[in-house]
From TrEMBL:
Designated name of the protein: DUF302 domain-containing protein
Residue span(s) of domain DUF302: 37-99
Superkingdom per UniProt: Bacteria
Amino acid sequence: MPDDGLLTLPSAHSIDETISRFEAALKAHSVTLFAKIDHAAGAADANMPLRPTVLLIFGNPQAGTPLMQANQEIGIDLPLKALVWQDADGKVWLTYNDPAWLAARHQLGSAVDPVVAALGDALAALGEAAAIP
């Protein structure tokens, strides 16, 4: 489990392609995309520079509800989020919260360990579908 709770994958694709692939993977797994926030567009509207940075907010009540039943405060971290961003060298990355870290943060207890593990596996698969060739 990473110290900061973030898992980051390098993408072999452009920003747009990584986002498109992530959205397709969500759809293929019947996961709802609630919002897509283009932080760079917001920065541009404020006349401030920002490299491409897009936040995807997504989830599935069957996965998230058991976690909130264990501790409703995890709702502050749900729905889940993925950040697709470009660094100063032009490299594209995909970052998301580690579900095990979120479970520890919110002291969910071992009763939801299977749900947390399944969620971790699902996020890893979504990330790989988006970032790996």
